[in-house]
Structures are given as C-alpha cells and as structure tokens.
Here is the input.
Amino acid sequence: MHLILQRYFGHTAFNPYQQEIIQDILDGRDVLAVLATGGGKSLCYQVPALMGVGVTLVISPLIALMKDQVDDLQARGIGAEALNSSGSYATTRRIRSELGEGLIQILYVSPEKAVSDDFLTLIASTPVTLIAVDEAHCISMWGHQFRPEYRSLAVLKERFGQVPMVALTATATPDVRDDIARQLNLADPSVYVGSFNRENLRYAVVPKEEDAYERLRVYMQGRKTETGIVYTATREGAETLAANLRADGVPALPYHAGMTAAARAETQDRFISGKVPVVCATSAFGMGIDKPDVRFVVHVDMPKTLEAYYQESGRAGRDGTTSDCILFYHDDDAKRLRSFIDRDLPSEFQREVARSKLQSMVDYCTATGCRRTVLLEYFGERFDAPCGGCDVCAPDRIPALDREVSLAGKARPRPGRRKGGAVRSASG
Ligand code: ADP
Ligand code: ZN
Here is the structure.
C-alpha cells in the first residue's frame, strides 16, 4: 500500500488512521471512519481500490465534487468514472462497456442512482470489491445535513453482503456515529475517530452590538491582502455586507443560492484563484472549496448547529497556518432561530433535535470557559483547557475585535449608509 500511496498520490507516509482503515478494508471488515476535514478520507478507499481487481463504488452526495474527484483521479492515470442523474444515456452506455472491459477501478455514484433498479442491473455482473459511503452523516436525522435518499443505502448491504463497506464522515457526534452504523447495517465495524482539534485555528466570539459592522470593517481593513470568508444568515445580508465592505476599500464579493449559477461560479473561481480575497456568503458557499490559505472565517450571524459552525469555520487554515474563526453573537439570533424551528419543522421530534443542537451552539457562544473545549466536547472528544488559542484562554493572542477598534480610534459613523446594516440585517 505504501507503493500505491507514493506512485499514484505522491505521498510518502500515511496520515493518522489511514493505514489502519485500509488494512481493515483489505481484511474484509466494515469500517466507520470519522476524520476531520483535511484528514485524508478519500485515500482510505482510493488506495484499496487500486490494490486489487474489481470495482470500488463510492456513494457521494454532490455531483460537482464527484466531477472534481474523477478528473483528479483520471489525471493520475486511474480508471475513474461518475454516474448520476445528470448523466446522459451515452455516458451510461460508455460506463457499461468500460465496466465490462474491466477499465473502471473507482465508480462514483449518487445515492439515488446507487439504489435504482437500472444501476443495480448495470452493476450485477461486475465484481464489486468495496463500497465507500462518503459524507455518511447525511444518513442520520440527528446530523445536520440529513438527506432522505441516503436512507435507502442499506439496500446495498443486502445486495452486496460479502463486500466490505466503509462509511466516512467529517462531522459526527457520538449519536450520529451510532446511527450511521445502524442505518447502513454495518457488520461489527471497526470505528476510527480522529481528533477534531485544529491546532492552528484561533476561536473568538464577539458581542454583536450596534458597532458590529465597524469592528468587522477595522478587522478586515487590517488584513487587506488576506483571504477570508464572512458567513451571513441571509442572501440580503451577504449582498449588503459585500457592498459595504467594497465601499470601505475591502474587495469583497457576495455568494448565495439566489445568484445565477454563472455568477456563483465566477465568484468561486475568483476567490479560489486569489483574484478576490473576501467572499460574503450564505452557507451555500464552501462545499468542496479546498482553498488552503483562508486566513479567517467570520460569522456575523450564528449558525444553527455546532456541526455547521465547525464545518464552515474549518475552511480556515487548511494549510496549517494560524487562522481566525470569529463569531458575532447576540441573543436575538438565538431567539430568531428558535422561532424558525417552531415555525418550519413539521414534527416534534425534528423540533427537539434542532432545539438541542441550537442550545449547544448558544452554549459555545456564551461559554465562560475554553471555546475549544466546548467545541470538541460536542464531538465527544475530551480536551484539557487552557488551549492557548481562544479568546477565553488567551485573550491577548486573539484578535479581539473590540480592542482593534479602540486601537484604531473611535469608529466614525458613516452618513448615508445603514450602520451595521448587513451585520444586523438577518434579525430584521
Ligand atoms: P478529507 O476528505 O478528509 O477532507 P481529502 O481526502 O480531501 O480529505 O484530503 C485532504 C488533503 O490531504 C488532500 O490534498 C490530500 O491529497 C492530502 N492527503 C491525504 N492523505 C495524505 C497523506 N497520507 N500524506 C499527505 N497528504 C495527504
Ligand atoms: Zn481555549
């Protein structure tokens, strides 16, 4: 396996748990792998896929991500293809014939496709040697990204009883972990849980008062050449904030699901290529964005769950360099989100789950102890404070936005602009 690691991927050593996971798969065991973003989950199924004959099926929820992965693997000389509902008849026919000739080693499939009759027929005479379920938390209603189509995947275990299955996820609380194993029918799986601690990330929560926009502006103006993401709760918030920042000399572009696909792609390209340093975005931004040098992720509105917060803030500092995760908090945000839960969720069960997740998010924001400890405990990981990298443990080393404002002098009110409009817009 080291040979494959080196020859196909150019790496000299395995990351934590990769080798153990691969060995278990080769031994025919089911595996549940919970590794933080950037932990190298893909290799856990790609290496075994290249070690034998037969096809590895990879269930993946995002068509765009699938395409990136397939392009990358093909560029390495690996037989990879993707099948999803957007694929044409011609694509299916080509894949059928390539499967017949044994040219495909890794086949990415969307969950709805994977359990469809035509796919199961297509694959019936193919030797499947491994099934990998990526983003496996999508199967759990306890998770923050439940996808009903994942529920049908248990069918695969019935169909391919002897084939090992590996479920992979970056965010799973202990409840979600158990649920994944149960829902997928994993047979006595080996469970690997990597550390969720991101040592190079600094965490801070800032009170969201009237001067929130000014604090943010001063922070950003001090980092003009650095790359960052500012998350807002609403599309309007993203637009307004980007416009305000641009007016204040910070090159920022908005990104949200209300923009055309072309406009979104352009913003994303300009961000990834470094042409524009800051994106003001809703949570629609980020899936599959693997930009290593994001130096700060600021949330001007509180997310609904710590899973979402961990995932979004985790887009900072993937290159290992010190980076900031800053969250603006106000009680009103919690109240607003609570009222959305009561208004929008159809069952009491869903409302309870959502309320309890929201409460954990609020607990993080209002913690009087180490933020990192609260965050990691939520994922079932023990951490001994002080961490040296949060606003509670190390107030001097953390960019306290209030201090930066006072250092910069009293913020001047700006005539003609809604003061703090974008930052507060979500609550109004
Ligand atoms: P995840 O899906 O867990 O977020 P990826 O599989 O996308 O992580 O891998 C993240 C990055 O780490 C990729 O750039 C990948 O090439 C790199 N990587 C994975 N395994 C190793 C390794 N053993 N040594 C060095 N780099 C690795
Ligand atoms: Zn701390």
Q: What stands out?
A: The CA atoms of residues 292 and 318 lie 5 Å apart.
